[in-house]
Amino acid sequence: MSPLQKLLEQSSLHDVCGTAxxxxxLKASLTPTPTTRQVDGDLKLSEGQxxxxxxxxxxxxxxxxLEDPSRLLVAGDxxxxxxxxxxxxxxxxxxxGGALSAHxxxxxxxxxxxxxxxxxxxxxxxYNDHSTYADLLTARVVVADDRAxxxxxxxxxxxxxxxxxxxxxxxxxxxxxxxxxxHKAGAYPDLAKRLCQGKELLxxx
Length: 205
Fold this sequence. Notes:
There is one protein chain. The protein is of the alpha/beta class. It has a 16-stranded parallel sheet that branches. The relative contact order is 0.12. The protein contains six helices and 16 strands. It has helices at 3-7, 14-17, 20-29, 164-172, 177-184, 188-196; strands at residues 33-39, 43-45, 50-53, 55-60, 64-66, 70-74, 77-80, 83-86, 92-96, 100-102, 104-107, 110-113, 116-119, 122-126, 132-145, 150-162. The model has no long low-confidence stretch (mean pLDDT 94). It has one domain (3-162).
């Protein structure tokens, strides 16, 4: 059984990824292959699907979409040219043994990167059912809506943490008008739909 397969036996990765030391130990146990897997177009995980990639690099040319519940585990680095989207109320897992990069990220489930997370636009996680684990997260805007993410260092022009009622005014200053309308209506499905269509959540700037 590979290390990734063993992780699938966990209901949550909090106990093995909650600290930098734990993440370092787990990373040392992984053995990604010196190969690249390219996914042309979108990569979508359907309800109940588990997908494991043992390659050292997985390159998704489109969007990465995880339905609830689903789990994607990558032994090495994951590059997503489009957006990463998980919208729902059940458990979803995105585990990356190396570095993770994407254009935007909107995620309700659990996100783990044993390297860094780099997002060009907004890295938006929400609700306190799950958490995000990484040493470093960089993005233009970072939003943790009613969620305590376990990220050691956050580098962002705007970093918003708290219940949506507490960060609404600040969100209004950075969100695209249509995304702002969706947020005010409490419609995370609408925000997810925008990202799946390749539309931006943030204002230009």
